[in-house]
Amino acid sequence: MIKRHAEKVILELLRGFPVVTITGPRQSGKTTLSKAVFPQKPYVSLEDPDVRLAAIDDPRSFLDRFPDGAVLDEVQRVPDLFSYLQGRVDADGRMGLFLLTGSQQFGLLSNVSQSLAGRTAFVELLPFSAGELKAAGVRPENLNEMLFFGGYPPLYDRELLPRNWFAAYVTAYVERDVRQLLQVQDLDTFQRFVRLCAGRSGQLLNMSALANECGINHNTARAWISVLEASYVLHQLRPHHQNFNKRLIKTPKLYFYDTGLLCWLLGIQSPEQLVTHPLRGSIFETFVISEVKKLFCNRGEQGELYFWRDSNGNEVDVLIPVGDKLMPVEIKSGKTVTREFFTGLNRWRELAGDLACEPTLVYGGQESYRRNDIRVIGWDNVNSLLE
């Protein structure tokens, strides 16, 4: 088993909360991690129809089966269970009783927040980070292979081709989530919509243009984006709102969580195709921002990220909060560092003044060093970004 960096924070939280809730995309390793954290406690999957029916019909008797707690997997399937769980943990008083897991943000977070407010901590578990794979000795050494495979655990513990696994993953999970949440009937149009989103990863999200190209209305596009966010397929990066006396872009940017899934949706068949692919820069940018999100998630933190762009074309790819300051990070897929790589960082640093800290360039090479007071980090050391 590849050790997850989030395990440490989960164990710490279980000492102070009766319940810890692990959320994240399907197949990201939530079940495996939960069993590793609670090896002696019962494991119950509410995806099982018989188990789910028992929990729905008689929730009190269902919970009575676990006097010392348990791992309850995919708890969003039985939302009424949360109120009974509240009464159970309040009456018991012990910490670290239950681990809950769920794959959808819709419903799960609102139900848990209402019924278990103050009783549960939340940890988001995303697919493997490059740092976790590196520590386990299984990370691809080649950047293009890292981008092509992504971080989903099944690709590292089974003999699977990415094209086969991602095809099954989208059919079995993503489309099922869409049917459950929105009752989408026209899956062909939805599939086209997801692929159009893939072509826009790393770009400003123009909802109207996306809807028009797919042949749907604006409200439908917005609803489908929300479902893809709830299923941890993609996320939006908001623009930094502070005005440095320049007209700022206010539109969010769209990013996928996993570059392996992104490459499959883009029709990329091999790592070698990435060498000259026109979207290689956007795919690499997607990879780095996903890695930053994983660093925060593995600490049990939200880590609100931003980007900055003004109307003159000056841009910084991601701004990372560090205390009351912001770390500007520029992302370039090239292996050779040129002067132009630093243009956006220098401009933002001039405008931000004391708000800026530790300007950083992440690039497609492997060496890490400092250049003109700017930290330069190679792709394989991206896990050191917050150090």
Lay out the secondary structure.
Layout: H1 6-14, E1 19-23, H2 30-37, E2 43-45, H3 49-57, H4 59-64, E3 70-73, H5 81-92, E4 98-102, H6 108-115, E5 120-124, H7 130-135, H8 143-149, H9 154-157, H10 162-182, H11 187-198, E6 203-204, H12 207-214, H13 218-230, E7 234-239, E8 253-256, H14 259-265, H15 280-297, E9 306-309, E10 315-322, E11 325-332, H16 343-352, E12 360-363, E13 369-371, E14 374-378
Parallel strand pairs: 1-4, 1-5, 2-3, 3-4, 7-9, 11-12, 12-14
Antiparallel strand pairs: 6-8, 7-8, 9-10, 10-11, 13-14
Helix pairs in contact: 8-14, 10-13, 11-12, 12-13
How do the helices and strands follow one another from N- to C-terminus?
HEHEHHEHEHEHHHHHEHHEEHHEEEHEEE
Q: Tally of extended strands? A: 14
Q: What is the gyration radius calculated from CA atoms?
A: 22 Å
Distance between the termini: 26 Å
Number of domains: 2
Number of helices: 16
Name the structural class. Answer: alpha/beta
Helix content estimate = 40-55%
Strand order of the largest sheet: 6-8-7-9-10-11-12-14-13
Weakly predicted, low-confidence segments: none
Q: Indicate the overall shape.
A: globular
Estimate what percentage of residues fall within beta strands. 15-25%
Give the mean pLDDT: 91
Largest sheet: 9 strands, mixed
